[in-house]
Amino acid sequence: MSTDAANYPVSRWYLRPAAGRLAAWLTATRIRPVHLTACGLLSAAAAAVVLIGRPEMMPLAAVFVLGWWFFDRADGQLARRQNTVSAWGAWLDGNVDELADVGLHVAVGSVLAVQTAASWPWWLLVAFLGGKYLFVHGLTTEEHANGEEEPVLCEPHPRPLFLSGKAAGWLRRLYHLPGNADVRAHLLVLALATGYLAAELALVAIYYNVRWLVRYVLVARRLGGTR
Q: Residues near 163 by Cβ (< 8 Å), separated by ≥ 6?
């Protein structure tokens, strides 16, 4: 499987090629990747504002979320074309992505709480934020436990707990599918376009909590076996 197919299973068909054309057009200009990153953040903020202020216009919020993801696909390509790739740019891009993801889901939880006049959307939001924090914290502390000076927020494909062979391969792909940011971004777009906000928030909340639990078990087994 190609890198694009693995990293961008949805946007490789339309957003990523369009972002590449934009990056090619901007290569010789004074526009820099950080400008595209800022445009992406503004687009995500616009999506949250529309969602909270005019929830009946959720499809428009979906368009803004696509705009955020489009600029996120474009800034890295522009950096490579202009030969301006840097650790600072990668750090900024990653943090903007996390800020947008958290902010958009706070908006989703807020709208659901108003629409349902209930408290369960807030509990779903807390589960999402808590699961996301524990998962990311687990990755950073694992890097430190391995003796790495600088934690890297990426996860290698862990060995399955019980299965091996083809079954393990399919299980691994299924396990990692919601972990792909491209998949999650499009799930959010779909939820905004269709109004199924509760299903999307519940899915990401369950995903992150299952992910950190499984990850902790795998890491405990591996690190415990080295003593």
A: 171
Q: Which of 29, 100, 37 is nearest to 74 (CA)?
A: 37
What is the rounded distance in angstroms from the CA atom of residue 106 to the CA atom of residue 24? 35
- φ, ψ for residue 118 (rounded to 5)? -135, 170
User: Is the model's pTM score more than 0.70?
Assistant: yes
Concatenate the DSSP letters of all residues of the chain into one string: --HHHHH-TTGGGTHHHHHHHHHHHHTTSS--HHHHHHHHHHHHHHHHHHHHH-GGGHHHHHHHHHHHHHHHHHHHHHHHHHT---HHHHHHHHHHHHHHHHHHHHHHHHHHHHHHTSSHHHHHHHHHHHHHHHHHHHHHHHHHHTT-SS-------PPPSS--THHHHHHHHHHHGGG-HHHHHHHHHHHHHHT-HHHHHHHHHHHHHHHHHHHHHHHHHHHHTT-
Q: Are 180 and 204 in contact (CB under 8 A)?
A: no
> What are the tens digits of pLDDT across the range 201-212?
999 999 999 989
Asked whether 99 and 41 are in contact (CB, 8 A), the reply is yes
Could you give the dihedral angle defined by the CA atoms of residues 64, 70, 71 and 73, in that order, rounded to the nearest 10 degrees? Answer: 150
